[in-house]
Every structure is written in C-alpha cells, then in structure tokens.
Automatic annotation (TrEMBL):
One of its GO terms (molecular function) is phosphatase activity. It comes from Enterococcus alcedinis. This is D,D-heptose 1,7-bisphosphate phosphatase. GO terms for biological process: carbohydrate metabolic process. Belongs to the gmhB family.
C-alpha cells in the first residue's frame, strides 16, 4: 500500500509568499527532519504549491524552476527524498483547474503513484487552500501554525468555515510526529 504526505511549500516547509521571487527562501529548521521522518515511516513526499507570482510575471517560469531545483538539490544533499513537485503557476483571475484548493493536482498524484487516499495527509499553513483542498478530496489534513497558520485560524477562519483540519500542529515536524503517533495507536 502506497501513501504520501502532500506538503505545501511556502509557510509550511520554509520561506514565505515572497521568498521564491527574491531568491531568499530558507527551509525552517524542522523541515528536513520532518521530511526524512515521513520517508522513514513509508510516506512519499509530494509538494503541491501555488505560485501565482509566475502568472503575475514577478518571476519567470525559468527562474522559478531554477530556484526550485536548487531547493530540491539542497534537500537531496541533506538526504531528503522528494518524489514529485506539482506547481500551479496561474493567477486566480485565470480560473485554472489546478490552483489549490482545487483538487486537480492532488488527484493526478493519487492516480500516478497509486496512493491509498485514506492513508494520505495534506500538511499546510493555509486553511483556505490546503485544508479546503483536503476537505474536497476527503483527505486528512494538518494545519501547521507556521507561515499563515495562525491567521488561518483567526482573521481568515470564516473563509473556510465549512471544514476543519483533522489536526493542528506547531510545525512540520510536530505534524509528522502526530501522524506517526496515530499510526501506532491504529495498529
Ligand atoms: Mg503556504
Ligand atoms: Zn493553475
């Protein structure tokens, strides 16, 4: 049985909504241990990220791909395995089919990697994007309190009031620890 963690990138694993444009992205210190721990416990790491800066012309697709490949190299150098990265480059105005919270990209990944959806989690810092996406696919979700997480639970909470995250975690590592804790309980 194959299972995956669908990771949000910005605000969840590192950086913020500006950092890929100005090339200042850094991983949060708990991100690398979190990604490694996911692999150790049998999860594929799949990143799903909205990058509307590309659609807005603030960063070109080539610049984005270069920045992304540097990040992936940095992870690989630290022994982290990332199975795939799915990017939506569009602006909201383009009304594309792939921008989170639309489930298109995650659906594609579920099919491509033959994942057991009941065993997968979406981990992100945005209620409106990440938790709403999980809600639509009936996947489990963990909202992290890094990035936009606290704002998601306060100022922005009414924008995704129809659902709740399965769990709330301090950060990416706490999220993985919670998931692993549940596995042990379920066994
Ligand atoms: Mg985010
Ligand atoms: Zn898109």
């Amino acid at each position: 049985m194959k299972k995956a963690i669908f990771w949000d990138l910005l605000g969840t694993l590192g950086g913020d909504s500006r950092t890929l444009i100005n090339q200042e992205f850094t991983f949060f210190e708990e991100a690398i241990p979190a990604l490694k721990k996911a692999t150790t416990h049998g999860y594929l790491n799949i990143i799903v990220t909205n990058q509307s800066h590309i659609g807005h012309g603030r960063i070109t697709i080539e610049e984005y791909e270069r920045a992304l490949s540097q990040l992936l190299q940095q992870l690989a150098d630290n022994g982290v395995q990332i199975t795939d990265v799915y990017t939506c480059p569009h602006t909201r105005q383009e009304a594309c089919i792939c921008k989170k919270p639309k489930p298109f990209l995650v659906k594609e990944a579920l099919k491509k990697y033959e994942l057991e959806s009941s065993q997968c989690y979406i981990i992100g810092d945005s209620g409106t994007n990440d938790v709403m996406l999980a809600h639509q696919l009936q996947l489990k979700s963990i909202l992290v309190l890094t990035g936009e997480g606290i704002r998601s639970l306060t100022d922005q909470r009414n924008a995704w009031s129809e659902t709740s995250p399965t769990h709330i975690a301090e950060n990416s590592l706490d999220a993985i620890n919670k998931i692993i804790g549940f596995q042990i309980i379920e066994q």
